[in-house]
């Protein structure tokens, strides 16, 4: 990133204090060409041309940009957007040439914190967006912690996660779990975004090496399946002891399929077909006899079909 300055403590202020209000910052607002506004390096939030974007573009077309963006000067020219990526896209769709922004003098870490805080409260964020956003803010705050307490790197890490949790609904532990999801291969993380892999299962998968994750993807594609939490935990255990192989993945996944199956039927439904005085044992006996007859009938039908011309 550009605009590096001497490290200074990152102030933990409210978003209003960071961004300023229209009255407070009125004299600092400038209309900047959209061509001069560049995406924040590593920006983890997707800017999609969806229905919400169309609504925002319509609002911008009618009323203009009500809240200015936040930018900083790039050493290579132009400005780096810290807050306002969706507003810029809405301006493009609305056919505008400029956007109102407030230019701030910020370090890389300060910019990262503001960028994440200005987006993390949005509704319907993808798991991957939160994961990389938390990671970026975590690393920025962790670097700040190292500078403030050079004798204990661990203190910086703990303070970073705790600080992030104060501004979100996620606990410190949950934030660290999100961050660990960034260790997933992109294909697996996409499956998490599409809710094809449950969040907790994905966190366990993220502890496998990249090569082991690749083997798991291959196995999932070959067998059109998604492993259960129990299966992934066993894979993780094997990976700690030695390198997880494709045959071991197969052994773990196949074993669960062959485990004992128990079928439970609601008593209310069963009572519809039995006399009131029938005991549990009597009902089981009748059910097994019926299943036996069904199985024998099915076998006879198969034999008759195989013997016909």
Please describe what this structure looks like.
This protein is an alpha/beta fold and 309 residues long. The chain has helices at 15-19, 22-25, 51-63, 85-94, 108-117, 127-148, 153-166, 172-180, 186-193, 199-205, 210-223, 229-241, 246-257, 267-271, 280-307, and strands spanning 29-33, 37-38, 69-73, 79-83, 98-103. The protein folds into three domains: 1-119, Conserved hypothetical protein from pyrococcus furiosus pfu- 392566-001, ParB domain; 125-183, no CATH class; 184-257, no CATH class. It is 56% helix and 7% strand. It has a five-stranded mixed beta sheet. Strand 3 (69-73) and strand 4 form a beta hairpin. The radius of gyration is 29 Å and the shape is elongated.
Q: Which structural traits does this protein have?
A:
Conserved hypothetical protein from pyrococcus furiosus pfu- 392566-001, ParB domain; 309 residues; alpha/beta; disordered N terminus; 5-stranded mixed β-sheet; 3 domains; 5 strands
Structural class: alpha/beta
Task: Write down the secondary-structure element order.
Answer: HHEEHEEHEHHHHHHHHHHH
Question: Unreliable segments (pLDDT under 50, ≥5 consecutive)?
Answer: 1-27, 147-155
- How many strands, which pairing sense, and closed or not: the largest β-sheet? 5 strands, mixed
Report the CATH topology name of the largest domain.
Answer: Conserved hypothetical protein from pyrococcus furiosus pfu- 392566-001, ParB domain
Mean pLDDT: 83
What is the tally of beta strands? 5
CATH-wise, what's the superfamily of the largest domain?
Answer: Conserved hypothetical protein from pyrococcus furiosus pfu- 392566-001, ParB domain
Number of helices: 15
Please give the domain count.
3
Can you tell me the CATH architecture of the largest domain?
Answer: Alpha-Beta Complex
Report the sheet-strand fraction: 5-15%
